[in-house]
Amino acid sequence: MVTGAAVGSVRSVPRLVIAAPASGSGKTTVATGLMAALSARGTAVSPHKVGPDYIDPGYHALATGRVGRNLDAYLCGAELMAPLFAHGARGCDIAVVEGVMGLFDGASGEGELASTAQVAKLLRAPVVLVVDASAQARSVAALVHGFVSFDPEVRVGGVILNKVASDRHEVVLREALEATGVPVLGVLRRAAPVETPSRHLGLVPVAERAAAAVAAVEAMGAQVAQGCDLEGLVALACSAGSLAGAAWDAGEALVSSPPPPLPSPFSGVAPPEPPVGPGGPRPQAPDGPAVAATPVKRAGSPVVALAGGAAFSFSYAEQAELLTAAGAEVVTFDPLRDEELPEGTSGVVIGGGFPEVYASELSANEALRKRISGVAASGAPVAAECAGLLYLCRELDGMPMCGVLDASARMSERLTLGYRDAVAVSDSVLSASGTRMRGHEFHRTVVEPGAGASPAWGVRVPERRVEGFVEGGVHASYLHTHWASAPGVARRFVERCRTS
């Protein structure tokens, strides 16, 4: 078992960042496999993912038995990376952080912001570079040397060579890397890849392929256990620096007084430039009274129905934690299977996922569609992101949906992808007009019209536009947001549940 000093405060929990020169190098296989291999030895592993991705954390959760958590410096700000990491790593022996894209790739046009390198520095964590060696020999040394020297503040402590063809190939690669001084901590042979099916938005989520996903994670764990120096990786993890400050806590986050909202900028003029500080502009939480850090659980606490299951598997764990800290009872329901909302539902949250894949099944569940439509008509709060937006539309690919919004949704060949700086255009159950939030879009669908009479957000990039719908208690948008960046969103939503 791995132990670190002051694990209770999570200041010195051993940790590694698994990175790569580029996407497709094998980060997910190595990171998930390492989590599984260490867990199989009885080690309590804390799983993390750099960036906004929802799918990889599902595989991490299977490998470790713990909730997979995201570390996104664009969505949440650099100042929350260490506290959110510490929150997830409570009680663990070691943490494994899977990077995003290439090591130094981050938010477009924002320098290192939201890159794996930035998060590694903020966590004071050593980096293990996973290199696809299938088409190179001695040149691997130049590649590794470049990544080691590009930013001296990023400590590349080891290399794992992936897709190595033979014993001779391994010898050539190892000899070349001796000159770099970077140790080889693993060699994975070129073999049939672990079966991890993909489709239009990446890997198929764990929730849709439970048995196959378990088998895939086991296979990744076996690969890493056989080909990697687990003791060497653990020793490197133990060299991580101490972290200052306390772990993030949902209740404590709620009592922080948010700044007042800015005036609504979308009244025929361009939105104002966001305030700039270290790491770029920061989101602003909605206004409203603070609540106790540890709310008293009592009969009558509002029930918030949170969509889950195969069609709606995208959510950040901190969202439910914040709703709970704000006094709600969060109950999950599955729109594919459940015909009723949880008893006593006072509000509904429908996150991301793949409703387009399950459109016929969702449409066939007419009873639940009517229940959700009724909740929305009553004025109760309903928050929907991306997949949730599609579900609330009148139809999706010609099949009836909830009909809460007078809009039609359909699949598209075009991928919409990227971070967004957004400003709330309309007062809603989530935010006051003028509230700034950061989010991301990731979909291959189109909603027509793209915005209602009272839009949800105004964004500048990739073009200046308004999008989404605010109607009564409904807030529906393509924008995925991370509520840890603005805890007042949860407080405002729960207060509306109490009063609606």
From TrEMBL:
Sequence segments annotated as region (Disordered): 255-294
Keywords linked to the UniProt accession: ATP-binding, Cobalamin biosynthesis, Glutamine amidotransferase, Ligase, Magnesium, Nucleotide-binding
Known cofactor(s): Mg(2+)
Residues at the active site: C386 (nucleophile)
Site entry (Increases nucleophilicity of active site Cys), positions: H480
Pathway assignment: Cofactor biosynthesis; adenosylcobalamin biosynthesis; cob(II)yrinate a,c-diamide from precorrin-2 (aerobic route): step 9/10
InterPro entries membership: CbiA/CobB_synth, Class_I_gatase-like, CobQ/CobB/MinD/ParA_Nub-bd_dom, GATase_3, P-loop_NTPase
Gene3D superfamilies: 3.40.50.880, P-loop containing nucleotide triphosphate hydrolases
Sequence ranges assigned to domain CobQ/CobB/MinD/ParA nucleotide binding in this UniProt record: 16-201
Catalytic activity: hydrogenobyrinate + 2 L-glutamine + 2 ATP + 2 H2O = hydrogenobyrinate a,c-diamide + 2 L-glutamate + 2 ADP + 2 phosphate + 2 H(+)
Function: Catalyzes the ATP-dependent amidation of the two carboxylate groups at positions a and c of hydrogenobyrinate, using either L-glutamine or ammonia as the nitrogen source.
Family recorded in the similarity comment: Belongs to the CobB/CbiA family.
Notes on the domains: Comprises of two domains. The C-terminal domain contains the binding site for glutamine and catalyzes the hydrolysis of this substrate to glutamate and ammonia. The N-terminal domain is anticipated to bind ATP and hydrogenobyrinate and catalyzes the ultimate synthesis of the diamide product. The ammonia produced via the glutaminase domain is probably translocated to the adjacent domain via a molecular tunnel, where it reacts with an activated intermediate.
NCBIfam families: PRK01077.1
Record's protein name: Hydrogenobyrinate a,c-diamide synthase
Species per Swiss-Prot/TrEMBL record: Streptomyces tunisiensis
